[in-house]
Specification:
The structure holds 2 protein chains of 2 kinds. Chain A is mainly α. Chain A is about 70% helix and about 0% strand. By secondary structure, chain B is α/β, with parallel strands linked by helices. In chain B, strands 5-6-7-3-8-9 form a 6-stranded mixed β-sheet, with helices on both faces. In chain B, helix 3 packs antiparallel against helix 4. Chain B contains 7 helices and 9 strands. At the A-B interface, helix 1, helix 2 and helix 10 of A face strand 4, strand 5 and helix 2 of B.
Chain lengths: ~270, ~220
């Protein structure tokens, strides 16, 4: 044995720093593998990662423009659609990719350093990267051709985007783990995510709703994320309704629950 | 050294809890070759997976103080949709080894030539086992876990594997699982018999084989 890293990481008591290095290495390897298995090396290859969400967003933007989804408000429809639909892709794609993610990766878990959490982390990172790139490319494009005005408050946009990503990631980990415990989760996730879309704040501003309905809709954490994002984008042009503490508490709760479920299933996973 | 203490593994099944391994104890010293014999379904592969760390024990401890391989077997641990080369890259990345310097060896040993750039799912079973063995030898370990690995392949390839593993790496420790007494006799210094979830350790291979013969005759 000449390779010193191998000698050490096989020890039962691996120091924290080394564990972290190993985990980064494994997640990196899983990312590369995921990109290759999903997109291959044909045509535009890994660029599908953000071209696919871009096509979705463009299609939705076109449809909403024709349907005048902004309900006669003075809001510019392109910016409204792009901020809204990009956030939906951000929180929805991560759970969709994590549901049932363990089973096709079981063969890889023959390698001690490949853990359940790494498989989820790789998929979450990839989806977040895809949605984020799509959002940046599309808004830069539309701003440069003058169909969208520049953002008002970049920091607030980043905050809204980060909160939505945190919500998506914790939900993804939870759904991914629960789907490993019962198949019902996989069956229910698709209708649930579909039905949540119209309520998610992507296609409306909370301010446009009657007050009683506002209260109901604001129970959904992702509504707060897109409201923060739009306040950042449009500034005083819109009147946003959100509660940062509420959204952060929900995300924190989901994260803790998800990590506890991850612990449960990782003790029981059996490689193929 | 690998030290296994009071290892228990139970699985939940439809007909209740099944104890596959019950209070298993043994030690592997550097360079030692230990055979584990048991009939089909006796829990040999489960034991190998626990030692490798791919699965977690229900109770008991496994101390690994040397670099332990993944359970080497033909098949398993590969991605069919990836090419042979991408599988090699993945495994090298995971274990922190450099891929580029391993490619010539894998190419030469597996005799796959340009097929190394085709998806593994298009390989024949013989090609798969050649790739699997070549990749297994690309990363170095102090202790190799071998799960019936020599059972497949034609006699020429069989011989190549034997040289690579038992001659070039004769200084390494190995845990070899098999139901073939002759294979254990030819390659191991010590042996243990796994029956009904219990592991019976013997210092001499002959004693273990005698116990195994006797036991499998009566059951």
């Amino acid at each position: 044995m000449t390779d010193e890293t191998l000698t050490v990481h096989n020890n039962t008591h691996t120091p924290l720093y080394r564990s972290f290095k190993i985990q980064m290495r494994v997640i990196g390897a899983l990312l590369m593998r995921e990109v290759l298995t999903r997109y291959g090396r044909h045509n535009i290859g890994f660029m599908w990662l953000f071209v696919e969400p871009m096509l979705f967003t463009l299609g939705v933007t076109a449809l909403w423009s024709f349907a005048k989804m902004h309900h006669g408000s003075s809001m510019p429809i392109v910016a409204f659609a792009i901020t809204g639909y990009s956030s939906v892709l951000l929180w929805r794609n991560m759970p969709s990719r994590c549901v049932g993610a363990v089973e096709p990766n079981l063969a890889l878990m023959y390698h001690r350093n490949v853990k359940v959490i790494d498989v989820f982390a790789a998929r979450i990172l990839l989806e977040a990267a895809g949605a984020t790139t799509s959002f940046i490319v599309l808004s830069t494009f539309f701003i440069s051709i003058g169909w969208m005005r520049g953002p008002q408050d970049i920091i607030k946009i980043l905050l809204g985007w980060f909160m939505t990503a945190w919500f998506g990631a914790s939900l993804a980990l939870l759904m991914g783990c629960l789907s490993e415990r019962t198949e019902v989760v996989e069956k229910l996730w698709h209708p649930t995510s579909y039905l949540l879309f119209p309520l998610s704040g992507a296609a409306f501003m909370v301010d446009w709703l009657p007050p009683t309905f506002q209260k109901v809709v604001l129970c959904l954490p992702m509504v707060h994320g897109v409201e923060i994002l739009r306040e950042g984008y449009f500034g005083s042009q819109v009147h946003s309704h959100y509660n940062f503490t509420y959204m952060a508490s929900v995300c924190l709760g989901l994260t803790v629950l998800a990590l506890s479920q991850e612990r449960y299933i990782s003790k029981r996973v059996t490689p193929e | 050294m690998i030290q296994i203490t009071d290892l228990v593994k139970r699985y939940h099944t439809r007909h209740g809890e099944v104890t596959v391994l019950d209070q298993v104890n043994f030690t592997v010293n550097p360079g030692e070759k230990i055979g584990i014999i048991g009939r089909n379904g006796s829990g040999k592969s489960t034991l190998i997976r626990l030692i490798s760390g791919a699965e977690q024990p229900t109770s008991g401890t496994i101390r690994r103080e040397m670099g332990v391989s993944w359970p080497l077997a033909f098949g398993g641990a590969f991605q069919g949709t990836l090419t042979g080369l991408d599988n090699l890259r993945f495994i090298c990345r995971i274990y922190g080894a450099t891929t580029e310097e391993k490619i010539p060896f894998v190419q030469e040993f597996s005799e796959l030539g340009r097929y190394l750039k085709e998806p593994v799912k298009t390989y024949s079973s013989g090609m798969r086992s050649r790739l699997a063995f070549a990749i297994s030898m690309a990363v170095e370990f102090d202790c190799f876990l071998i799960d019936e690995i020599i059972a497949v392949g034609d006699s020429r390839f069989h011989e190549k594997c034997r040289v690579e593993l038992f001659e070039k790496r004769k200084d390494r420790a190995m845990i070899i699982v098999s139901h073939d007494p002759n294979f254990i006799k030819a390659n191991c210094d010590k042996a243990a018999v796994l029956t009904a979830g219990r592991l019976h350790n013997f210092d001499r291979v002959e004693e273990a084989l005698a116990y195994y013969q006797e036991h499998s005759a009566t059951v």
